[in-house]
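Incident log, entry 3
Record: HTH luxR-type domain-containing protein (338 residues)
Problem: checksum mismatch between cached and fresh output.
Input:
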Amino acid sequence: MVANRDRGIHPHTVTELCEEGGRLYAHALRAGRIARAEVESAPCLEELALLHPDPSDPDWLRPVPPLVALAQRLNPIEREISERRRLSIALADTFEPFMTLSAGEAAPTHSITVLEGGERINGALNLATAQCQNEMLTIQPSDRGPEPERSLLLGLERDRPLLERGVRIRTLYQHTARHSPERLAYVSQLSYGKAEYRTIDELVERLIICDETVAFIPARDDQQVALELRHPGLIRYLVKVFEFMWGRAVPLSAGAPYETAPGGITEIQHSIAKLLVEGHVDEAIARRLGMNVRTCRAHIAKLATALGSGSRAQLGYLIAQSGILEQDSRQSREASHM
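Fresh output:
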């Protein structure tokens, strides 16, 4: 801001032409000159070189013609524009030899896309499965949502065309799926073609991979936000995770994944026993095994009765002493020698 004697502070920066300055400049153009004292309230007139001293009288100023003043103000701007244009041309020339090296590559796709809302998620899944030509890998934890039947129906509508096209489908469920009439009915509907189903003790989250090119994982517990992944490194990692679990899983068509222990321990209780020994609470066990907490606690009670336990602490000790987890130990030793 510029100080002046009459108004104290000029109301704008000196590179602008204020209303007062415009009025005085117009007056000077009409009169041919203006007294120096009159323009003290508008120093922008001299800063913008719109006035110059009258050669015949130092107390007066003469206006610079508008065309001349405009040219004076535009010249440095045009020089800057020309310099920047020259720089942009030089940069383009520098990178031009490299452009042809990637001209034949396909346009990059988004590595991670956030899908919000069931409609958009299902739309992306439908598109990916419609384009799937070779194999689809899926991990499907037990559906504990409000409409599990509807989810199964949507899955049936999505998977049946894949099998009809000869696409291989491999699906992992939790062991609890063996006791789900809805899930077993779903599997029976797709028993033809290249569909394989296995079960495993625990599954963490849902996963769908199509042709090892695109994968879908949940981003929120309510299943209303998902991530569509297309980064090759991420896809390779997820495929390896799937194959690791697939190798440890038991075909759904086979019998119980664990032999019933002498004390009458079921395979579900076997899985619960393992998680109890690891220190998990009831809610975590239920979530990892795909059942509600009430059912989980009922199994824990039956397990405690079978082992003769009177307390939670004693139950952990009796599980360790009973030998019901020895099969896991044998499998781990065998895997380490493979």
